[in-house]
Write a structure and sequence with these properties.
The protein is mainly alpha-helical. The protein folds into two domains: 62-317, Fic-like fold; 334-405, Orthogonal Bundle (Arc Repressor Mutant, subunit A), CATH 1.10.10.10. It has 16 helices and nine strands.
């Protein structure tokens, strides 16, 4: 892993120097991606772990594909950000984006909770599905709390630890030191260290590796585009794998947090997990290729493609939301005296698209009869759809709105 041929290694020595920092290797000068050496295998007691090189440095590249994709990705993000700033009540719609991100990011790790389940209360979830449901809810809370923290604090290792603690609370990984870096060896794939697909660095090197990564986020002395920094950061974080569990989810969450912290996005409107889940094999292959063959360029291109496609898809979703909202506003007018309360219910459905009669009573401060009457009107207008088939304890969902999120 991470070993070039002898001829290429000798050529690189003439243009690059290396600095050893507490036993870790940092390449100096202006490092071209094409010359990047990801790291090396390091012998431990009975296995070899992968020791990554440091990444906080000036980066450049020769690949024209990176240039063209970087330009397109930057333009797509700017357009998405503009949409997120002009759509009225955008925070209502972003809550659904977060829920979709939570379900898709967790799905990559094997959690089987669909977005249809995420919007429900725990009492409405089958007992055998509640662990998966809770993991997704933790992701939603972790994202929300982290974004709130960014209003007063910079993106940091400390923030990632705090986010990880929320992510792992009360779920299957809660015994795996939530909020703390691991103090033992972990691995990816296989059943043990002896047959693992990949073994991350030894835990003793984690503080220096994560400190170096944090420095890359805030290094003002280098001229590296933000999307390149976060592409490299995501690869490096997943390679370091600093937690015993939850690394994939934290690493993907890091992408959105970074873009917000650097002012690229004013609202958390970009989430890559849907794209990464649909292209899971290519995603893992691109990360592995860096470690095995030092090929960082294909990973950066894959990452930028993910940004472009996701930003374009998110823009289309916002366009459809605005169109649907205009149509529904016109329908509210037809409800006469109920119109004002109907609009209030509709706004609630944009952020929480599942309701029952008692929820509407509490939300609008009306009688059960009035609440059920308004729900019936929403069913007649094909805004709400009953999903239980019961005569009592009925549950209704805003299906056409949910379908906009895939």
């Amino acid at each position: 892993m991470g070993i070039r041929s002898k001829s290429k290694a000798n050529t690189r020595k003439s243009s690059l120097t290396t600095i050893h920092v507490n036993g870790l290797v940092k390449m100096s000068k202006n490092l071209k991606m094409e010359e990047f050496v990801a790291g090396k295998l390091k012998q431990q007691y009975e296995y070899k772990s992968f020791q990554p090189n440091l990444v906080n440095m000036q980066w450049s590249w020769d690949s024209p594909k990176i240039n063209t994709r970087l330009e397109k990705a930057s333009r797509s993000l700017a357009e998405l950000n503009a949409y997120s700033l002009i759509v009225p009540d955008i925070d209502l719609f972003i809550r659904m984006h977060v829920r979709k991100e939570a379900s898709q990011s967790s799905k990559i790790e094997g959690t089987q909770t669909h977005i249809d389940d995420v919007i429900l209360d725990v009492s409405q979830i089958d007992p055998e599905k509640r662990d998966d449901w809770q993991e997704v809810q933790n992701y939603v809370q972790a994202m929300g709390d982290a974004i709130w923290e960014l209003e007063t604090l910079p993106l940091s290792v400390r923030l990632l630890k705090k986010t990880h603690e929320i992510l792992m609370q009360g779920v299957r990984g809660e015994h795996k030191t939530p909020g703390n870096f691991r103090v033992s060896q972990n691995w990816i794939g296989g059943t043990s260290l002896s047959n693992a697909v990949f073994i991350p660095p030894h835990h003793e090197t984690l503080p220096e590796l994560m400190s170096d990564l944090e420095k890359l986020w805030h290094n003002e002395s280098i001229d590296v585009p933000e999307l390149i920094r976060i592409a490299i950061s995501h690869y490096q974080f997943e390679t370091i794998h600093p937690f015993l569990d939850g690394n994939g989810r934290i690493g993907r969450l890091l992408i959105t947090l970074y873009l917000i912290s650097r002012g690229i996005l004013g609202k958390p409107s970009l989430y890559l997990s849907d794209y990464l889940e649909k292209n899971r094999i290519a995603y893992y292959d691109a990360l592995t290729r860096v470690r095995v063959s030092n090929d960082l360029v294909p990973w950066v291109i894959f990452f930028l493609d993910a940004v472009i496609e996701t930003a374009e898809s998110s823009k289309k979703t916002f366009q459809k939301i605005m169109s649907m909202r205009n149509e529904l506003e016109a329908q509210m007018v037809t409800l006469g005296r109920r119109a004002e309360k109907a609009r209030k219910l509709l706004l609630h459905l944009y952020s929480s698209p599942a309701v029952n009669g008692s929820m509407v009573v509490g939300l609008l401060g009306v009688t059960p009869r009035a609440a059920n009457g308004l729900i019936d009107e929403f069913v007649r207008l094909e805004i709400l759809e009953e999903i239980t088939g019961f005569q009592r304890n009925r549950l209704f969902v805003f299906r056409k709105y949910m379908q906009l999120f895939g």
